[in-house]
Amino acid sequence: MRVAIVSDAWRPQINGVVHTITKVVGALTGRGHRVEVFGPERFTTVPCPTYPEIRLAIGPKEAMRKFLKDFRPDAIHIITEGPLGWAGRSICLSEGWPYTTSYHTRFPEYVHARSGIPVSWTYAILRKFHKPSSGMLVVTESIREELRKRGFRNKLVPWSRGIDLDLYRPAAEKQDLDPRPIWIYVGRIAVEKNIEAFLKLDLPGTKWVVGGGPLLAPLRRKYADARFFGSVDHEELAFRYAQADCFVFPSRTDTFGNVMVEALASGLPVAAFPVPGPVDVITDPILGRLNEDLRTACLEAVTLPDPTARHRRAATYSWQTCADQFFANLAQIEAHRSKQADTKIPQEVTA
Q: Where are the alpha helices (DSSP H) in the chain?
């Protein structure tokens, strides 16, 4: 099958969405499918306001239409609700092509954190964006329930995540790198991640922050007692996880949080707020602690024993399952065309 993925989030960005797409593309390609990602690098772009590391496509619709027609996809999946996502949606509707979408980011909360725009306004836009899709892939049950309550009437289907168990594993021995306990945060250094809720905590030991983003420089200056490593390669990331004592996840706006599963695979307990994402991952007391008092969650989580149990639990997350769910829910253009003789799909896209 020829699968087109339309995404405003793609390389060289480093985030959970890009990592998930990369793993799914690799799994499907390994099964003999042809998968193309249509990301910002194919178009004229400008820096995203307040987040210049992210590039936004300008007027991509007609170029996108040509790319898709030349590729002749059997199925189209739209990952994001940015300029490329809206262009892909418009093209699919005008051509009569069925497509699926996914919900990776609590975008209304992100927008509110950066601009103060009411979340209800942005959710109204997202309902419009996703309404025509044949299926909307959602990562956790708590997010599915939240979307239902907010009026999303799509077919909401599960789309799990995976873990690289060969890379992330508990350390055989902890090294004397910094005063312990070592508390670690991994992820984008951006306002929506609520990192200061972690950095301002009165905790013993040392705080580590791994990742890049627009707040890296100001937070590094403000919190001189913490160690900021910036963006690192996979091997150093795995090393930092394994050498830490507790993973702190202060975000209130993530739909899942791949980093929590990476931390669990590395043997770390997780401390977080009891919000969607953490409540779906930290489902057993041995995995961590959730509390509206993040300091209490940290101090309780760091005492938890049995890192091997956390590694075993992380092993239940599989990239193969993630790819299977993605593939099973694709809306095939050829099947749609066969049922609708008056379809607008041109002959050349029905390979």
A: 16-30, 61-71, 83-95, 107-115, 119-130, 141-149, 196-199, 216-222, 234-243, 258-265, 278-281, 294-301, 307-314, 319-328, 333-339
